[in-house]
Amino acid sequence: MKKTLRKFAVVLLAALMVVFCFAGCSDSAGEENSGGSSSENAKFGIVVQTGANGAFVDMKDGIIEQMKANGYENATFDYKDAQGDTSALSTIISSMDDGSYDAIFTIGTACTQSFVNLSSETPCFFCAVSAPVEAQVITDMNTPDKNATGTSNAIPVGDIIEMGYKITPDVTKWGFVYSTSQVNAVDTVESAQEYLDSKGISYESATVETSADVKSAAETLISNGCDVIFVPNDAIVQDGVQALSQVCEEAGIPTYCSSATTVNSGCLATLAIDDKGIGAKTADKCLEYLNGTDITAIPAEVVGIDYCTFNGTVAQSLGIETPAADTIGYEIQVVE
Asked: What is the dihedral of CA 175, 177, 183, 184, to 10 degrees?
Protein backbone atom coordinates (compact mmCIF):
# COMPACT_ATOMS: atom_id res chain seq x y z
CA MET A 1 0.00 0.00 0.00
CA LYS A 2 2.83 2.37 0.92
CA LYS A 3 4.63 1.51 -2.34
CA THR A 4 1.45 2.23 -4.31
CA LEU A 5 1.02 5.60 -2.61
CA ARG A 6 4.67 6.45 -3.15
CA LYS A 7 4.42 5.61 -6.89
CA PHE A 8 1.25 7.67 -7.17
CA ALA A 9 2.95 10.62 -5.50
CA VAL A 10 5.94 10.39 -7.85
CA VAL A 11 3.69 10.26 -10.92
CA LEU A 12 1.60 13.15 -9.61
CA LEU A 13 4.71 15.25 -8.94
CA ALA A 14 6.06 14.55 -12.42
CA ALA A 15 2.74 15.51 -13.97
CA LEU A 16 2.64 18.74 -12.00
CA MET A 17 6.19 19.57 -13.09
CA VAL A 18 5.22 19.11 -16.75
CA VAL A 19 2.19 21.36 -16.28
CA PHE A 20 4.26 24.06 -14.57
CA CYS A 21 6.89 23.80 -17.27
CA PHE A 22 4.35 24.40 -20.06
CA ALA A 23 2.72 27.17 -18.10
CA GLY A 24 6.08 28.83 -17.61
CA CYS A 25 6.88 28.60 -21.31
CA SER A 26 3.50 30.03 -22.19
CA ASP A 27 3.91 32.96 -19.79
CA SER A 28 7.41 33.59 -21.07
CA ALA A 29 6.24 33.72 -24.67
CA GLY A 30 3.39 36.05 -23.77
CA GLU A 31 5.75 38.34 -21.90
CA GLU A 32 8.10 38.47 -24.89
CA ASN A 33 5.33 39.54 -27.26
CA SER A 34 3.98 42.20 -24.91
CA GLY A 35 7.19 44.18 -24.65
CA GLY A 36 5.91 46.94 -26.98
CA SER A 37 4.45 47.17 -30.45
CA SER A 38 6.13 45.05 -33.09
CA SER A 39 6.51 46.28 -36.64
CA GLU A 40 3.44 44.20 -37.50
CA ASN A 41 1.04 46.04 -35.18
CA ALA A 42 2.78 49.44 -34.87
CA LYS A 43 0.63 52.49 -35.40
CA PHE A 44 1.85 55.95 -36.34
CA GLY A 45 -0.02 59.22 -36.74
CA ILE A 46 0.95 61.83 -39.33
CA VAL A 47 -0.57 65.31 -39.15
CA VAL A 48 -0.31 68.14 -41.67
CA GLN A 49 -1.95 71.54 -41.48
CA THR A 50 -2.80 71.55 -45.17
CA GLY A 51 -2.09 69.06 -47.93
CA ALA A 52 -2.54 71.93 -50.39
CA ASN A 53 1.14 72.57 -49.74
CA GLY A 54 2.67 69.96 -52.04
CA ALA A 55 5.94 70.09 -50.11
CA PHE A 56 4.14 68.77 -47.01
CA VAL A 57 2.68 65.87 -49.00
CA ASP A 58 6.16 64.94 -50.25
CA MET A 59 7.45 65.07 -46.67
CA LYS A 60 4.65 62.72 -45.59
CA ASP A 61 5.55 60.32 -48.39
CA GLY A 62 9.22 60.49 -47.39
CA ILE A 63 8.34 59.57 -43.80
CA ILE A 64 6.21 56.58 -44.77
CA GLU A 65 8.64 55.27 -47.38
CA GLN A 66 11.57 55.42 -44.95
CA MET A 67 9.63 53.70 -42.15
CA LYS A 68 8.48 50.92 -44.51
CA ALA A 69 12.00 50.47 -45.85
CA ASN A 70 13.23 49.86 -42.29
CA GLY A 71 10.93 47.11 -41.10
CA TYR A 72 7.57 48.86 -40.72
CA GLU A 73 6.04 47.89 -44.06
CA ASN A 74 3.00 46.39 -42.27
CA ALA A 75 2.53 49.21 -39.76
CA THR A 76 -0.52 51.47 -39.79
CA PHE A 77 0.06 55.08 -40.89
CA ASP A 78 -2.88 57.26 -39.95
CA TYR A 79 -2.59 60.41 -42.08
CA LYS A 80 -4.72 63.44 -41.15
CA ASP A 81 -4.96 66.69 -43.12
CA ALA A 82 -6.55 69.67 -41.34
CA GLN A 83 -6.95 71.40 -44.73
CA GLY A 84 -5.89 74.73 -43.28
CA ASP A 85 -8.68 74.76 -40.68
CA THR A 86 -7.34 75.69 -37.23
CA SER A 87 -10.35 74.18 -35.45
CA ALA A 88 -10.03 70.93 -37.41
CA LEU A 89 -6.31 70.81 -36.59
CA SER A 90 -7.06 71.13 -32.88
CA THR A 91 -9.59 68.30 -33.07
CA ILE A 92 -7.20 66.04 -34.98
CA ILE A 93 -4.33 66.69 -32.60
CA SER A 94 -6.49 65.97 -29.53
CA SER A 95 -7.80 62.73 -31.06
CA MET A 96 -4.25 61.47 -31.59
CA ASP A 97 -3.42 61.86 -27.92
CA ASP A 98 -5.35 58.71 -26.98
CA GLY A 99 -2.41 56.42 -26.22
CA SER A 100 -2.96 54.16 -29.23
CA TYR A 101 -0.07 55.53 -31.32
CA ASP A 102 3.57 54.50 -31.03
CA ALA A 103 4.63 57.93 -32.29
CA ILE A 104 3.19 61.02 -33.94
CA PHE A 105 4.79 62.78 -36.90
CA THR A 106 3.87 66.47 -37.20
CA ILE A 107 4.65 68.34 -40.42
CA GLY A 108 5.16 72.08 -40.09
CA THR A 109 5.23 74.44 -37.13
CA ALA A 110 1.51 74.83 -36.35
CA CYS A 111 0.89 71.08 -36.08
CA THR A 112 3.96 70.61 -33.94
CA GLN A 113 3.10 73.42 -31.55
CA SER A 114 -0.43 72.06 -31.13
CA PHE A 115 0.74 68.54 -30.28
CA VAL A 116 3.68 69.51 -28.07
CA ASN A 117 1.43 71.85 -26.07
CA LEU A 118 -0.63 68.81 -25.02
CA SER A 119 2.36 67.48 -23.02
CA SER A 120 1.48 64.07 -24.44
CA GLU A 121 3.14 60.84 -23.36
CA THR A 122 3.27 59.85 -27.04
CA PRO A 123 6.58 60.96 -28.61
CA CYS A 124 6.45 63.62 -31.31
CA PHE A 125 8.78 63.66 -34.31
CA PHE A 126 8.45 66.97 -36.12
CA CYS A 127 9.31 67.63 -39.75
CA ALA A 128 10.18 70.97 -41.38
CA VAL A 129 9.86 73.30 -38.39
CA SER A 130 12.04 76.21 -39.47
CA ALA A 131 12.75 77.56 -35.97
CA PRO A 132 11.98 74.87 -33.33
CA VAL A 133 13.45 76.77 -30.36
CA GLU A 134 11.86 80.11 -31.27
CA ALA A 135 8.52 78.33 -31.80
CA GLN A 136 8.93 76.80 -28.31
CA VAL A 137 8.65 73.30 -29.68
CA ILE A 138 11.87 72.34 -27.88
CA THR A 139 14.22 74.28 -25.62
CA ASP A 140 17.53 73.08 -27.07
CA MET A 141 18.34 71.50 -30.44
CA ASN A 142 21.06 69.22 -29.04
CA THR A 143 19.12 67.93 -26.02
CA PRO A 144 15.45 67.98 -27.02
CA ASP A 145 12.79 68.11 -24.32
CA LYS A 146 8.97 68.12 -24.30
CA ASN A 147 9.01 64.51 -25.61
CA ALA A 148 9.81 65.81 -29.10
CA THR A 149 12.62 65.95 -31.63
CA GLY A 150 12.87 66.13 -35.41
CA THR A 151 14.09 68.15 -38.36
CA SER A 152 14.30 71.85 -39.15
CA ASN A 153 14.26 73.35 -42.63
CA ALA A 154 15.73 76.66 -41.51
CA ILE A 155 15.49 78.74 -44.67
CA PRO A 156 18.87 80.11 -45.86
CA VAL A 157 17.35 83.44 -46.87
CA GLY A 158 20.69 85.23 -47.15
CA ASP A 159 21.92 82.59 -49.60
CA ILE A 160 18.67 82.74 -51.58
CA ILE A 161 18.87 86.53 -51.85
CA GLU A 162 22.50 86.33 -53.01
CA MET A 163 21.49 83.68 -55.54
CA GLY A 164 18.83 86.12 -56.74
CA TYR A 165 21.47 88.76 -57.42
CA LYS A 166 23.51 86.25 -59.44
CA ILE A 167 20.50 85.48 -61.63
CA THR A 168 18.93 88.98 -61.74
CA PRO A 169 21.67 91.46 -60.75
CA ASP A 170 19.67 94.65 -61.40
CA VAL A 171 17.21 94.14 -58.53
CA THR A 172 16.85 97.23 -56.29
CA LYS A 173 13.74 96.67 -54.13
CA TRP A 174 12.42 93.39 -52.71
CA GLY A 175 8.78 92.64 -52.00
CA PHE A 176 7.48 90.03 -49.52
CA VAL A 177 4.06 88.38 -49.53
CA TYR A 178 3.13 86.32 -46.46
CA SER A 179 0.52 85.57 -43.84
CA THR A 180 1.10 86.61 -40.23
CA SER A 181 -0.72 83.45 -39.10
CA GLN A 182 2.08 81.28 -40.51
CA VAL A 183 4.91 81.14 -37.96
CA ASN A 184 7.43 79.73 -40.43
CA ALA A 185 6.65 82.48 -42.91
CA VAL A 186 6.96 85.28 -40.36
CA ASP A 187 10.32 83.93 -39.18
CA THR A 188 11.62 83.65 -42.74
CA VAL A 189 10.52 87.15 -43.77
CA GLU A 190 11.98 88.71 -40.62
CA SER A 191 15.30 86.98 -41.31
CA ALA A 192 15.24 88.21 -44.91
CA GLN A 193 14.48 91.76 -43.81
CA GLU A 194 17.35 91.70 -41.31
CA TYR A 195 19.67 90.52 -44.07
CA LEU A 196 18.54 93.26 -46.45
CA ASP A 197 18.88 95.87 -43.68
CA SER A 198 22.48 94.77 -43.18
CA LYS A 199 23.10 95.36 -46.90
CA GLY A 200 21.21 98.65 -47.09
CA ILE A 201 18.72 97.23 -49.59
CA SER A 202 15.14 98.48 -49.60
CA TYR A 203 12.05 96.27 -49.32
CA GLU A 204 8.31 96.34 -48.70
CA SER A 205 5.96 93.72 -47.28
CA ALA A 206 2.32 92.85 -47.94
CA THR A 207 0.44 90.49 -45.63
CA VAL A 208 -2.56 88.38 -46.57
CA GLU A 209 -5.33 86.66 -44.62
CA THR A 210 -6.54 84.28 -47.32
CA SER A 211 -5.20 82.91 -50.59
CA ALA A 212 -7.65 85.19 -52.44
CA ASP A 213 -5.60 88.17 -51.20
CA VAL A 214 -2.31 86.99 -52.72
CA LYS A 215 -2.81 88.37 -56.23
CA SER A 216 -3.78 91.87 -55.07
CA ALA A 217 -0.88 91.89 -52.57
CA ALA A 218 1.55 91.19 -55.41
CA GLU A 219 -0.03 93.91 -57.56
CA THR A 220 0.34 96.41 -54.71
CA LEU A 221 4.03 95.59 -54.23
CA ILE A 222 4.72 95.93 -57.95
CA SER A 223 2.89 99.26 -58.16
CA ASN A 224 4.99 100.47 -55.21
CA GLY A 225 8.24 99.83 -57.06
CA CYS A 226 9.28 96.33 -56.02
CA ASP A 227 11.22 94.75 -58.86
CA VAL A 228 11.47 91.28 -57.29
CA ILE A 229 9.13 89.33 -55.00
CA PHE A 230 10.04 86.71 -52.42
CA VAL A 231 7.58 84.05 -51.22
CA PRO A 232 8.34 82.18 -47.95
CA ASN A 233 7.02 78.73 -47.04
CA ASP A 234 3.45 79.74 -46.36
CA ALA A 235 0.45 77.42 -46.77
CA ILE A 236 -1.94 80.33 -47.39
CA VAL A 237 0.25 82.04 -49.99
CA GLN A 238 1.00 78.68 -51.64
CA ASP A 239 -2.71 78.32 -52.40
CA GLY A 240 -2.58 81.59 -54.35
CA VAL A 241 0.97 81.49 -55.68
CA GLN A 242 -0.01 80.67 -59.27
CA ALA A 243 -2.00 83.90 -59.48
CA LEU A 244 0.96 85.79 -57.96
CA SER A 245 3.35 84.24 -60.48
CA GLN A 246 1.12 85.16 -63.40
CA VAL A 247 0.91 88.80 -62.26
CA CYS A 248 4.68 88.94 -61.84
CA GLU A 249 5.39 87.35 -65.22
CA GLU A 250 3.11 89.87 -66.94
CA ALA A 251 5.00 92.69 -65.20
CA GLY A 252 8.42 91.16 -65.94
CA ILE A 253 9.11 90.66 -62.21
CA PRO A 254 11.25 87.69 -61.06
CA THR A 255 10.03 85.72 -58.05
CA TYR A 256 12.15 83.78 -55.55
CA CYS A 257 10.90 81.49 -52.82
CA SER A 258 11.74 79.01 -50.05
CA SER A 259 10.51 75.74 -51.53
CA ALA A 260 10.99 73.63 -54.64
CA THR A 261 7.23 73.06 -54.60
CA THR A 262 6.66 76.81 -54.98
CA VAL A 263 9.06 76.87 -57.95
CA ASN A 264 6.95 74.13 -59.53
CA SER A 265 3.92 76.36 -58.91
CA GLY A 266 5.42 79.25 -60.90
CA CYS A 267 8.20 81.03 -58.99
CA LEU A 268 11.57 81.42 -60.68
CA ALA A 269 14.07 79.78 -58.32
CA THR A 270 15.11 78.73 -54.83
CA LEU A 271 17.85 76.93 -52.97
CA ALA A 272 15.91 73.86 -52.01
CA ILE A 273 15.76 71.16 -49.42
CA ASP A 274 14.59 67.85 -50.85
CA ASP A 275 11.11 67.44 -49.35
CA LYS A 276 11.03 63.64 -49.42
CA GLY A 277 14.56 63.69 -48.07
CA ILE A 278 13.67 65.73 -44.99
CA GLY A 279 10.73 63.40 -44.42
CA ALA A 280 13.09 60.42 -44.50
CA LYS A 281 15.48 62.11 -42.05
CA THR A 282 12.56 62.74 -39.70
CA ALA A 283 11.64 59.04 -39.91
CA ASP A 284 15.25 58.19 -39.02
CA LYS A 285 14.78 60.03 -35.71
CA CYS A 286 11.75 57.88 -34.94
CA LEU A 287 13.56 54.68 -35.93
CA GLU A 288 16.38 55.58 -33.58
CA TYR A 289 13.84 55.99 -30.78
CA LEU A 290 12.09 52.72 -31.62
CA ASN A 291 15.47 50.97 -31.48
CA GLY A 292 15.88 52.02 -27.86
CA THR A 293 17.46 55.49 -27.79
CA ASP A 294 15.87 57.94 -25.36
CA ILE A 295 14.25 60.82 -27.24
CA THR A 296 16.28 63.37 -25.24
CA ALA A 297 19.43 61.80 -26.69
CA ILE A 298 18.29 62.28 -30.31
CA PRO A 299 19.29 65.83 -31.34
CA ALA A 300 17.02 67.86 -33.60
CA GLU A 301 18.67 68.43 -36.99
CA VAL A 302 18.84 71.39 -39.34
CA VAL A 303 18.68 69.95 -42.86
CA GLY A 304 20.89 71.74 -45.38
CA ILE A 305 20.46 72.81 -49.02
CA ASP A 306 20.34 69.99 -51.57
CA TYR A 307 20.19 71.90 -54.87
CA CYS A 308 18.93 74.95 -56.74
CA THR A 309 15.50 74.48 -58.30
CA PHE A 310 15.00 76.68 -61.37
CA ASN A 311 11.84 77.12 -63.43
CA GLY A 312 12.90 77.09 -67.07
CA THR A 313 9.46 78.09 -68.43
CA VAL A 314 9.22 81.13 -66.16
CA ALA A 315 12.81 82.10 -66.99
CA GLN A 316 12.07 81.98 -70.72
CA SER A 317 8.98 84.14 -70.22
CA LEU A 318 11.12 86.72 -68.35
CA GLY A 319 14.01 86.52 -70.80
CA ILE A 320 16.37 85.10 -68.16
CA GLU A 321 19.01 82.51 -68.99
CA THR A 322 19.50 79.38 -66.91
CA PRO A 323 22.59 80.01 -64.75
CA ALA A 324 25.57 77.67 -64.61
CA ALA A 325 25.96 75.48 -61.54
CA ASP A 326 29.35 76.98 -60.69
CA THR A 327 27.75 80.44 -60.71
CA ILE A 328 25.15 79.44 -58.14
CA GLY A 329 27.39 77.07 -56.20
CA TYR A 330 24.86 74.21 -56.23
CA GLU A 331 23.57 71.59 -58.62
CA ILE A 332 20.70 73.06 -60.68
CA GLN A 333 17.50 71.13 -61.25
CA VAL A 334 15.48 72.73 -64.03
CA VAL A 335 11.70 72.25 -63.97
CA GLU A 336 9.33 73.26 -66.74
From this structure: -70
